[in-house]
Amino acid sequence: MSQYVLRRLLIAIPSLLGISVVLFVVLALAPGDPFSELATNPNVPPEVQAALRAKFGLDDPIYLRYLHWLNAMMHGDWGFSFVSRMNVDTLILQRLPATLYVIGSAQILALLVAIPVGVYAATKPYSLFDQIANTFAFIGFSLPTFFTGLLFILIFSVTLDWLPFVYTTDVKATGIHWVLEMIRQAIMPVAVLGLFQAASMTRFVRSAMLDVIRLDYVTTARAKGLGQATVIVKHVMRNAMIPVVTLIALQMPAVFGGAIVTEQIFRIPGIGSLLISSILSNDTPVVMAVTFVFACLVVLFNLIADVLYGWLDPRISLR
Amino acid sequence: MAPLLEIKGLKTHFSTDDGILQAVDGVDITINKGETLCVVGESGCGKTVTAMSILKLIAMPPGRIAAGQIIFEGRDLVPLTSNELDDIRAKEIGFIFQEPMTSLNPVLTIGEQIAESLRRHEGLTRKQALERTIEMLKLVQIPNAEGRVHNYPHQFSGGMRQRVMIAMALACKPKLIIADEPTTALDVTIQAQILDLLQDMKERFGMAVMLITHAMGVVAETAQRVVVMYAGKVVEEAPVDDLFGDPRHPYTQGLIRSIPRIDLDSEHKTRLEAIGGSVPILINPPVGCRFAPRCKFAMDVCIEKEPLLREVKPGHRMACHLGDAQLGAAS
C-alpha cells in the first residue's frame, strides 16, 4: 500500500513538470507585463526600469526563465509578488485559510444534504419525496452560483439585512462573538456553493443506490430478515458509496475552481480571488504559483480517489 | 399431520406498461415436514416468483400478491408486513439463490455475511457468531474454514460460493429451505456435489426442501414429490416415481421426452423431442388451457375452458381435459 502511494507520487513528478512547462509558456505568451505599471509611472526613470528588468531576468530567453523558476521552486522560493510586494508563499498562506474554511464547510454541507436525501429517495423511487428531491436537484444545478449568490445577497443582505455580504478576515470581536460572526458571514457563500454541489451529488447518490438496490445480493440480505435499515445501510450504501466517493474526490479540484466565482461575489479574500486579482494586474509569479497549486491538488485528489477506491472495494488490490 | 407450508390459490401479479402480468395465477403447493418437493417447469413459468412470494422477496411494486394464502405452520404469511416477515426469513425459512456469483455482497467477508443473520435471529455475540459460522463452513466442507471465514466472495470459486450460500441459509437451522435453481449456474461435477451436500444437510437437520429446477435429472435424483408448473399454473403434481413412470399431462410427457438418453442402443435412438413454441406472455392470457397452443392433443374444449386440477390416482393430480384413456394412449 505505502509502496503503491510512493510509486504514484513518483509518477506524479513528470506530470507536474509537464503542467508547469505548459503554464509557464502560456503565461509568457500572454499579453501584459508585470512591469507595465512601472513603465507608465513617470516617477520611475527608464534606467531604473532596465536595471530591475535585468535583475529579475525578465528579458532572458523563456527556457532560461523557466529553469530559474524551477530552480527557485525546488529551493522553496515561490517568487515575489510585484503588486503586493511580498513573497508569494506568504501571500498564498495568508489567503488559504478563508478558502479552506468556506470550501470545506460547503463540501460538508453538500454531503450532509446529498447522502441522506439521495439514499432516502432511492429507497422510494418515484414517490412524492423522490419527485420533490429531483425537482430541487434540477433547479439546484441549473442555476449557476453567480446567479444564486447575487440572489441570496439581494434577499438576505439588501432586503432583509440579516447577513453581511462582504466577507472579512479581520473580524473585530473576540471569543464567542468572533466565532458567531465568522459563522454568520460564511452562511451565504457556504450555502450557495454547498447547495450547488449537493444538487448534482444527490442525483449521483440516488442513481448509485438504485443501481445497487436491485442486485441479487440485496435480495439475499433481505432473505436474511435483517430489516430494511440494515439492508440499506450495510448492504446497499456500502457498495453505492464506492463510485460516489471516487466522484467526490475527483470533483474536488473543480470545487476549488468553482469557488473562484463564489469568492469574487462574496468578496472572500481566498486564493480564488487572489488568482483573479493577480491575473488582472499581470502579477505573473502569483498566477503561476496559484495555478500550480491547483495542478498539485488535481494530482493529489486523483491519488486519494484511487486509494479510497482500493480501501472501499476489497476486489481491487493496489499494487 | 398438518403440512409445514401450504400455498393456496396464490396469485402474484406485476404491473407493467402493457398491462397486468399474471406471473403466478392460482397456484396450490403443499410441503410436508422433512420432505423434498421439486418444482419444475420452463424458464418464465412462475417457479421463482412463487418461491419469492413466500417471503415477499419480489419487488413490490411493481409486484403484488393479488390473492391466495401462504400458510406456514398454521400462520398466514400474506397479510404480514415486511417487518413482521423478518422474524421468519432465515430463521424459519432459508433461501438459496440461483447465482452464487452475484448473490453474495462483494464488499463484506463471507464470515460477516453468515454471522449477521446469526446475530439477528439467535442473538449471538460477535464472537459466538464467528464460532458458529466457522462450524457451518466446516459442515458444508469448506477447507480451512478458520482462515476462509475472513475472505471476500471474489476469493471463492462458484461451487465454493454456493457452499457459502448453503451455510448461510442453514445457519439458523430453518424448518424449510427454498433452493431456487441452486445448481443451474455451476458445472456438472460441482452440481452433483452441491445436490449431495443439500441432501446431506437436509437429513442432518430434518428440514423440508423446496427445490426449484428445470433439470429433470435433478428432480429424479432428489425429489419425493414433484410439482410441474406451466405458465403460472400447476399442471401436474405426483410422487416422483409416479411422475416419471406414469406422466399424465402432455406438458409433463414432453418434459420427460426432452431428456437426452444414452441408455438406448443406436437402433432405438431417435431425435431428441423438444416441445415446440415457447411459454406464452402472461399479459391477458387466453381463457382456456394455457398449454393448448403448443399441445399435440389440443381439442376445441381446451381453448374454451380452463382445465382444473383433478385427482387421477391417490396423490397424483393433473389439469388436462383429455380423458384417462386418451392420456394413456398419448404416453
Automatic annotation (TrEMBL), chain B:
As for subcellular location, the record says: Cell inner membrane
Q: Could you list this entry's UniProt keywords, alphabetically sorted.
A: ATP-binding, Cell membrane, Membrane, Nucleotide-binding, Transport
Recorded GO terms, molecular function? Answer: ATP binding; ATP hydrolysis activity
What SUPFAM superfamilies does the record tag this protein with? P-loop containing nucleoside triphosphate hydrolases (SSF52540)
Family named by the database record:
Belongs to the ABC transporter superfamily.
Q: Which GO terms describe its cellular component?
A: plasma membrane
Record bears the keyword Transmembrane helix? no
A single GO BP: transmembrane transport
Domain named ABC transporter is located at 7-256
Top-level taxon of origin: Bacteria
Write the protein's name: Peptide/nickel transport system ATP-binding protein
Q: Pfam families from the xrefs?
A: ABC_tran (PF00005), oligo_HPY (PF08352)
Membrane topology, as annotated, equals: Peripheral membrane protein
Q: What does this protein do?
A: Involved in beta-(1-->2)glucan export. Transmembrane domains (TMD) form a pore in the inner membrane and the ATP-binding domain (NBD) is responsible for energy generation.
Source organism of this protein record: Bradyrhizobium stylosanthis
Lineage start: Bacteria, Pseudomonadati, Pseudomonadota, Alphaproteobacteria, Hyphomicrobiales
What start and end residues bound the annotated signal peptide? Answer: none
